[in-house]
Amino acid sequence: MNIITTSHTPENKKRNGEHILIHMTYIAKNVELNSGIELTRALEYWRRYFEENDIVSALVISEGYFVQSFQGTRPAINTALAKIFDEHSTIFPNIVNIEEIESRQWDGFLIKHLTSSAEDEEYTLKSFSAGSDYNPYLMTSAQIENFLKVIFDEKKPRIHDVI
Hints:
Layout: H1 10-13, E1 21-29, H2 36-52, E2 56-62, E3 65-73, H3 74-87, E4 94-101, E5 109-113, H4 118-121, H5 141-152
């Protein structure tokens, strides 16, 4: 006799929002990872975690700040967010945007580390920020989302092209 369980039916999968894609962006200040080795280990941990949970991500690191956008199913994003808040409470994560999307914008686990080099100066948020120094906490969610698009767009438009 074959018994069909309802826990594996497509209709049951929709009960928790597995069919809904979410785009979530947060900003944070790095106050706990003191060395490049610690940061590298943390990034590799999250890369594997996101890959295992079918989450794509775009992360910018600059001057001790993180600006990260990730996309996946509603349950996966909620679980990842809880994990970030639980395991990294000292980075003071602040959600700046969360919305439902039709398709994923990013592919894989993308990282851009901005430095004070002339090449990266083009990407700094000074033209987006309210102050003279780079500080994503002073930026609006629209400025942050535009910044991420500029950083990870394959065409690499200049910042003033998206303002």
